[in-house]
Amino acid sequence: MAQGVVKQEQSLGELFSELAGETGTLVRQEIALAQVEITQKASTVGINVASLAVGGAVGYAAVLAILAGVIMGLANFMPAWIAALIVGAVVAAVAYFMVTAALNKLKNTELTPTETVDSIKEDAKWLKNQVS
User: Fold this and answer.
1) Checking CA distances to 32, which of 6, 48, 66, 118 falls within 20 to 30 Å?
2) Exposed, middle or buried by CB within 10 Å (0-12, 13-18, 19+), for 107?
3) Quick check: 56 and 96 in contact, CB under 8 A?
4) Helices 114-131 and 12-74, interaxial angle, to 10°?
């Protein structure tokens, strides 16, 4: 039994060596977590940017299609320039709301890798407790 106890005891140098190895592994895992989290957030931003571009394209298509048809129809009841102003204002309002909605989503996207930051703080506390 005395030999079993001796084998389980490690020197201080071995313990610090093991701690250094585990700390290195932990740092690599935290970096990997940060990369995954940032990639996910960048993907969300990319989707919102694409939505913004599509909203702009839809607004432009609306200007082209609706302006022509509605202006021609309204020109039967009022001067063509007034019809063009009315239709242009309506289409501009729709495009404005689409672009504003996409911009608000982009502004509200949190880019900080919060899970990684929290995990690193926990790891720092753990490491401090291990060293103490």
Assistant:
1) 48
2) exposed
3) no
4) 170
C-alpha span between 80 and 85 (Å, rounded)? 9
Read off the pLDDT of residues 4-63 as tens digits, 9 standing for 90 and up.
444 567 777 787 788 778 888 888 888 888 888 888 888 888 888 888 899 989 988 877
Q: What is the pTM of this model?
A: 0.41
Dihedral sign computed on CA atoms, order 33, 35, 41, 44: negative
Residue pointed to by tokens 């935290």: 30
DSSP 48-110: HHHHHHHHHHHHHHHHHHHHHHHHHHHTTTS-HHHHHHHHHHHHHHHHHHHHHHHHHHHHT--
- Give the pLDDT band (50/70/90) at residue 112: confident
Alpha-carbon distance of 70 to 41, in angstroms, equals 42
